[in-house]
Write a structure and sequence with these properties.
- By secondary structure, the protein is mainly β.
- The protein has helices at about 235-240, 290, and strands at about 10, 20-25, 30-35, 45, 55, 65-75, 75-80, 100-110, 115-125, 125-135, 140-145, 150-155, 165, 170-175, 185, 195-200, 205-210, 215-220, 230, 250-255, 260-265, 270-275, 285.
- Among the domains are: about 10-70 and about 130-190, TolB, C-terminal domain (Neuraminidase); about 75-125, no CATH class.
- The strands form 6 sheets. It has a 4-stranded antiparallel beta sheet with strand order 1-2-3-4, with no helix packed on it.
- The longest helix is centred in the last third of the chain and has 5 residues, at about 235-240.
Length: about 325
């Protein structure tokens, strides 16, 4: 094990010879970088992209796509409607189980002092928008891809350079680049629990995080969105006998030959990289404890790409 550089969301190039990553700290705040696998040739590619994350390479390695924060609201906002009207409240944003979620306010006429009605008010939480941007490595020019406001963890189709898959807020969505610069959003799934998709090297399959509520597990799909298979599940004895919480299994990525899937799991009460067959069989630690003890992995359930997998040439 050796240190390559510092940054977040590392992604190997298709050839396995370079790594793309982003940095959020000064002096290169919110920027995209790449470095050779041998540690040489660290290069700044693009900057001024707020909270740039999750880089993914085009199959020919000429471009890198990232997602970044752009637009929306970053603070709580108060909104009110007349009590007897149809409220514009979004139940996905406001937790109505909270007894303090709603505030009932008398609507007093300022001139007469008479009560004209009751307003119901609530606070909308911050609602940041996340977009997709494609950057040409050589020219350092970019193109923003307008396929939605909640685009996370893009992954470039390894056999179709005109398609990038992402989490789309309410399922997985594919950005397709068509003739004359046209961009089209192709919904693949409609389950909001589908997150962090990653293609197999041959483009036939997709692995992803799935929110089982309350925990996370890993599912595999065919590339067309069919054939869903759940690959990880906490055994009943863990919760019923050992009285331990459900495991979280996240951030899956295929091996370079597509025969195995590496993933993060907290089943040993810390985040570790494990590996399994593409059917979910033979789940085991990728590294011994002597290595895991040196890897204080952080994962905050925000579609991080903590690691990637390639052959060493």
């Amino acid at each position: 094990m050796r240190k390559l550089t510092h940054g977040i969301d590392p992604a190997f190039s298709p050839s396995g010879r370079q790594v793309a990553f982003t940095r959020w700290e000064e002096p290169s705040k919110f920027s995209l970088w790449k470095i050779n696998l041998d540690g040489h040739g660290e290069t700044h590619i693009f900057g001024n992209t707020k909270q740039a994350k999750s880089p993914t390479w085009s199959p020919d390695e000429s471009k890198i796509a990232i997602n970044f924060q752009h637009g929306g609201t970053l603070k709580y906002t108060k909104e009110c409607d007349p009590l007897e009207s149809e409220w514009s409240l979004n139940p996905w944003l406001v937790d109505l189980r909270d007894e303090d979620a709603l505030e009932f306010v008398p609507d007093i006429n300022e001139e007469t002092g008479e009560l004209e009605g009751i307003d119901v008010c609530w606070k909308n939480p911050p609602d940041a928008h996340w977009k997709l941007r494609v950057i040409d490595i050589t020219s350092q020019t970019h193109e923003d891809v307008n396929i939605g406001n909640y685009i996370f963890r893009p992954d470039w189709n390894p056999i179709n350079p005109n398609q990038i898959i992402s989490s789309g807020g309410i399922g997985l969505v594919i950005a397709e680049f068509q003739d004359a610069g046209k961009q089209v959003a192709l919904p693949l799934t409609t389950d909001a629990g589908d997150r962090s998709p990653s293609y197999s090297p041959d483009g036939r399959y997709i692995v992803l995080n799935y929110h089982q509520r309350p925990n996370w597990d890993i599912h595999r799909l065919n590339a067309d969105g069919t054939g869903r298979v759940r690959l990880t599940k906490t055994p009943l004895y863990v919760t019923a006998v050992e009285k331990k919480p459900l495991w979280n299994n996240v951030s899956p990525v295929f091996s370079p030959d597509g025969s195995q899937i590496a993933f993060l799991t907290d089943r040993n009460e810390r985040w570790e990289i494990w590996v399994m067959g593409m059917d979910g069989s033979n789940q085991r630690q990728m590294f011994p404890d002597s290595i895991n003890d040196q890897l204080p992995i952080l994962y905050n359930m925000v579609d991080e790409r903590v690691f990637d997998w390639t052959y060493i040439f």
